[in-house]
Input
Amino acid sequence: MIKREPELLSLVELSVTAEQARQGEPLDVTAFRRQARRALRHESPHAVEKELRSLRDVATRLIKAGDWLNAGAIYHTVLDETVRGYDDMLREMDEDGDISILIDEFALGLSQCLKKSKADAETRRAWLEALL
Output
């Protein structure tokens, strides 16, 4: 099945990474960063949106489980990658603004995590810088 749908491998990888994270322990965001970069390389805005939504959904599940710190780590990582890549890769294809709306959702999610998590000072500073 993965041979026919290679993007399933990355979704499985993200889910496993999120499930293995213990609440309160930092999540390894490497897989999420890779997935965000992969999403930005698509030529179709619909494909970009779909992959970014899947990343948002993982963070949302962590929030529902009360894991604000790891949800914030995901939001921060994806926000960082999408803001960096927006002008170079996405602005021309984002005619309807849907990708921008998703990026705003990552910023809002990170803002919520900043308020509700017990992140250390260094993490809070990095999150604040990403929001600015």
Q: What stands out?
A: The chain has one domain: 7-131.
